[in-house]
Amino acid sequence: MRKIALSLLFALVALTASAQSALKRVYNEAIDPMAQIDSALAAVRAEGKGRLVVCQVGGNWCPWCLRFADFMERDAEIAQLVANNFAYIHVNYNPRSKAAQQSEALMKRLGSPQRFGFPVFVVLDQAGNVLHIQDSSFLEEDKGYSKEKTLRFFKAWAPQAVAPSNNVMRTIEARRSVRRYLDRPVEHAKLEQVARAGILAPSGMNLQPWQVRVVENREWIDGVTDLFKKANPDQVKRDAHFKNMFRNAPNIICVATPDGQPSVDAGLMGENMMLAAQSLGLGTCCLGGPVRFLNTTDACKPYLDKLQLPEGYSICYILAVGYPDESPEAKPRDMGKLQFVK
Ligand SMILES: Cc1cc2nc3c(=O)[nH]c(=O)nc-3n(C[C@H](O)[C@H](O)[C@H](O)COP(=O)(O)O)c2cc1C
């Protein structure tokens, strides 16, 4: 009986080993993984198609690593999706390898992916920054991998999903403060869309502590501008492009808050409106200067009354809106103010 049990055990071990050895050994143990990553990055940069790099970190010693490689190779849809979007490399790593120092440097470079087990996937942008580390256990199903989960992973990290070619990112990058506009009022439907984007902004406890007034009335804009010109003749004379006190915009959106106090809520709504306007081909400029004039000049009172703000509310800021008549360069931003805490 003992003999039969032993034979059965040997047969099982032999079967498992042969199934594993039948899988292609995809990890090249002879090459330096650091150089392999460098060369994949150089290749995607040189081809100029925006592809990213995915490192499938593991080794020939890891049956699940070889199984994943086999699964990917057999599925034409996954293979095509990956080929279109990534340079896909099998990065050899053996936690028990003697070249411990080298392995340590590799893990540091890839954001310590070994903590998730193997295989583990590391998505790199073209500069070699780690964009994402994917724990492969989330892609498993039964005794193999799920096609649906795998496709979802690769689609979620494809260049168009993460890069500025994403529409929202493109709109954010393209926005500028515009201070010269065409003499053409913005269509009511577009202004409505812009204002609605503002109202959709988040606010603390959803209190929506704002009032929004879209001014489409030319006499209102020209009327307060006449008052501004009388009060500031020299400033107006110095500006050769002066059309009106709202940086020459044909339309404005006044955002009012309790006592005119600046607030996170009001700021979030403003950026929503500016980005919506940008996406509709409009230019904007957030204005604080005209608010001071409106709120401190007695002669402006009839104009403010026309806005019919509730008791206790006054204008916090104004957005100039119109079709741009200039394409300003991007103002510099200090990326040194940004830090990641890991
Ligand atoms: C609260 C606030 C008030 C501003 N006030 C004025 C203003 O009165 N006049 C003006 O020309 N620009 C004003 N701006 C626009 C800023 O000068 C502009 O956003 C900044 O220089 C960055 O340029 P960018 O918007 O093109 O990226 C204001 C912006 C903010 C956020």
From TrEMBL:
Keywords: Oxidoreductase, Signal
Signal listed as a keyword: yes
Stored InterPro entries: Nitroreductase, Nitroreductase-like, Thioredoxin-like_sf, Thioredoxin_domain
Cleaved signal peptide residues: 1-19
Stored Gene3D superfamilies: Glutaredoxin, NADH Oxidase
Domain Thioredoxin, first and last residues per copy: 11-159
Family of the protein in this entry: Belongs to the nitroreductase family.
Protein name as it appears in the record: Nitroreductase family protein
Lineage: Bacteria, Pseudomonadati, Bacteroidota, Bacteroidia, Bacteroidales
